[in-house]
Amino acid sequence: MPVICSGKCGRKAVMKRPKTGHALCKECFFHCFESEIHNTITQNVLFNRGDVVAIAASGGKDSTVLGYVMKLLNERFDYGLNLVLLSIDEGIPGYRDDSLETVKQNRDDYEMKLKILSYQELYGWTMEKIVKEIGRKNNCTFCGVFRRQALDRGAQQLKVDSIATGHNADDIAETVIMNILRGDTARLRRCTNIRTEGEDSIPRVKPLKYTYEKEIVMYAHFKKLVYFSTECTFAPNAYRGHARKYLKDLEKIRPSVIMDIIHSGEQLRFKDTVKKPIRGTCDRCGFVSSQQPCKACVLLEGLNRGLPKLGIGKKSKGDRMIAEQERELAIRERAQLVKNDF
After folding, report:
1. Smallest Cα–Cα separation from 185: which of 264, 293, 249?
2. Three-state secondary structure along 295-333?
3. Count helices and strands in the chain by DSSP H and E runs
4. Quick one: CA dihedral 103, 105, 109, 115, positive or negative?
């Protein structure tokens, strides 16, 4: 016997919604999915009429659905936003070059302006070159840091008012778990913020904060959206992958665990003795940072100095590496001077 849609429309249900367990037809699912994102945007006042908003587009399911829904809601509810796509080319052969073709398809389908920036033009390095230097153990650190700053650089060039990212509920719950496992209490609450910004920085917002990854996949499937689903060739050993697997195991036991973790992160309070990172701007590059110099500048300096592990680990370790390199350079220079004297 067919299951009737819980939306009281009388139609046959085609799915069981992961977030609530309700049996829904496609039309009712679309309505619920889109309405929840609209409520997230309006209740948190993520945008103002007339804003230019850059959608961080990777070609994956999250950014593809975000671009589609943002365009739809902007027209349906007359937000009055000017939407543009912003993509970053990390220089990963067989992955990013293919996904950027999907982004270009999104550009044509959604009729949005597209800006693409590459690590090569911004930093003089590609992830392929970086992996050859650092290996595959800490490469995601470089990519994540450079990508965040590259988005800021692109947003500055486009003169946007905010950057909308495709971070979904699963992503945020994973980040909470990662910060707990690292003992990074100072960042625990900030990672659940729906809006983040620092001194003179362009705000970042997460319209999909309360949207489950499974439902994003279902929405893209039913809407027949074109997106890129291949995993990054350099990411199999990423630390986030372990948090993701742990979260999926928990979800089998308690389906509401994703939202429970997010709400826990939102409610956290810390003692005054916990040092909280202050988001300001880097004295070197001028972009948002909670340290001086920013992590991107430290990592880039290490690559250019031939010390790729300079920004990995504690700052004191990096300082020792620089001091050791400078001592070795001074010894070689003195040896060359002595040789020239003879």
Report:
1. 264
2. HHHHHHHHHHHCCCCCCCCCHHHHHHHHHHHHHHHHHHH
3. 13, 10
4. positive
pLDDT tens for each residue of 214-265: 999 999 999 999 998 877 877 766 778 888 899 999 998 988 999 999 998 8
Stated pTM of the model: 0.85
160 in Cβ contact with 53 (< 8 Å): yes
Core vs surface per residue 30-67: b (16+ CB within 10 A) or e: bebbbeebbebbeeeebbeeebbbbbbbbbbbbbbbbb
The strand pair at 195-196 and 204-205 is best described as antiparallel
Distance CA 131, CA 264 (A): 36
Distance (Å, whole) CA 35 – CA 29 = 10
Lowest mean pLDDT among 116-130, 132-146, 303-317: 303-317
Count of all residues that appear for the chain in the document:
342
